[in-house]
Amino acid sequence: METPPETGEAAELLSSNNAIGLFDSVDAFLFDCDGVIWRGDTLIDGVSKTLDFLRSKGKKLVFITNNSTKSRKQYWKKFRSLGIEVSEDEIFSSSFAAAMYLKVNNFPQDKKVYVIGGEGILEELKLVGYTCLGGPEDGKKTVDLQSDCLFEHDKTVGAVVVGLDPYINYYKLQYGTLCIRENPQCLFIATNCDAVGHMTNLQEWPGAGSMVAAIAGSTEKKPVVVGKPSTFMMDFLLHKFNIRCPRMCMVGDRLDTDILFGKNAGCKTLLVLSGVTSLSSLQDPSNRVQPDYYSNKLSDLLQLLAE
Amino acid sequence: METPPETGEAAELLSSNNAIGLFDSVDAFLFDCDGVIWRGDTLIDGVSKTLDFLRSKGKKLVFITNNSTKSRKQYWKKFRSLGIEVSEDEIFSSSFAAAMYLKVNNFPQDKKVYVIGGEGILEELKLVGYTCLGGPEDGKKTVDLQSDCLFEHDKTVGAVVVGLDPYINYYKLQYGTLCIRENPQCLFIATNCDAVGHMTNLQEWPGAGSMVAAIAGSTEKKPVVVGKPSTFMMDFLLHKFNIRCPRMCMVGDRLDTDILFGKNAGCKTLLVLSGVTSLSSLQDPSNRVQPDYYSNKLSDLLQLLAE
């Protein structure tokens, strides 16, 4: 039997009593985006005022998203379109994390990267100087299953990066599978393993966890995960902001990625119920991840501090 | 720590000394097809003569395949086209197993089945009287990811059956995912979980294990597996042939499906090296599944018995 992970104490509802303590004890707030800052293309009520207030009090703000479909620059544009001023440096997307993982591991520039995922991953990889194959371009490709047909792949591919891909097909699955199965040195990198996500306002859709599992299933290999709950991105953050983890608070809407990431890194954690997690699932006996605090939405913090 | 499964004794090379003992001790031979009987569309050397010999000696022959793309009838046609006479009743495909699983579990006829997989699954389900959605027909469907778009699904779907699907796409992933996530009663059935298979003569391609993992990844559920190494099909076999498992020999080319199936059921086991398993992978210290015997190909049995 594996020892179950520590459950910790039950989360406290954020209140006027504990909000000031949380506020005073941290120098940086780390935010997940979807379900915390926005839902789909709509800003969540009170977010803008809350971020302005935190900045005015000298708190650092960082945005950490597992959504790999956009690059940092594309996220920066999205923030602007919603009326929020951020700098690209404050944004840590799992597409950026994938590029950084290759960079810090000295992945050679003469090797190529095969991408199952969106334009955001390609953009980040190109910014670091890597040559990519796959991505949206392979979304319309089909396979020839005639018995004597050979599926060719580029033997210089040294890494396969898999993220959310709404244009997943058998061509991409075979390409990624051959790269990994026929070359034991080939890296298998997952931007994240979220089971589902709000691809549209009204519904959840299969997330990167679905495509990553498909490749893990065909290759019988486990990926290196660079997005939350992996703390890979934390090193970049620490380097950039020079703040210790206990002086950070991770704010997110998912227990198994955001809150687990915060706890893994030794940050304080605040769950907001404005995204995928309901109060009943937080309080369900089967839930093993307890944040320090929870509240309905991010702006509750502002309101409680003003009381 | 989980206890590792029993490894058993190392496999014996089939020889003129032990072949007669194996032959005398069994009344039925169970064969995997791809890699044992044929490779792609080519019969493996000596198979026809060997099957004729076994039949002439009164042995029962059964063909058990994890490949769900064909129905029993379609397999029967394939055998005939290769010049081998079998009856449909001797063929147990994982497409048939999926239909039988629903039948023996009294799956209601007024519920529908959503299929991610090939025509063979649809055929078998229809033979038992079920109404199917999905399958090849959904292979060209696309999704609308506009933020206010709602993806509709039939709420009367009570089971999702997943097999090998070369036309996998995001539409099918979302359909299957919604059926399972939005209805806790919905069954999730995998025809099999083979990582790869010889979709063409020259190469391996992602197998049902890839599509099954994709749905397991998005639904956070584990499937019921009806193909090998699950022994679900064995009950039908026992009922039909009235032979005890120790008087059967499973012949296959895969350790993790065929040989494990035979061992799980308590049959004797013979690995042939004419398919996906090499001698070095059989003898690799990491291999935990040892057949009783191994030989290069099925017809070795005939040759050794004649010596």
Question: How many H/I helical runs of chain A?
Answer: 11
Strand order of the largest sheet of chain A: 1-16-15-14-2-5-6
Uncertain stretches of chain A: none
The CATH homologous superfamily name of the largest domain in chain A equals HAD superfamily/HAD-like
Percent range of helical residues of chain A: 25-40%
Number of separate strands of chain A: 16
Biggest chain-to-chain interface with counts: A-B, 47 and 47 residues
Report the biggest beta sheet of chain A as strand number plus sense, adding barrel if it closes: 7 strands, parallel
Integer average pLDDT of chain A = 94
Number of domains of chain A: 2
Structural class of chain A: alpha/beta
Shape call of chain A: elongated
**CATH architecture classification of the largest domain in chain A:** 3-Layer(aba) Sandwich
Beta percentage of chain A is: 15-25%
CATH names the topology of the largest domain in chain A as Rossmann fold
Quaternary structure state of the chains depicted: homodimer
N/C terminus separation of chain A: 48 Å
Radius of gyration of chain A: 20 Å
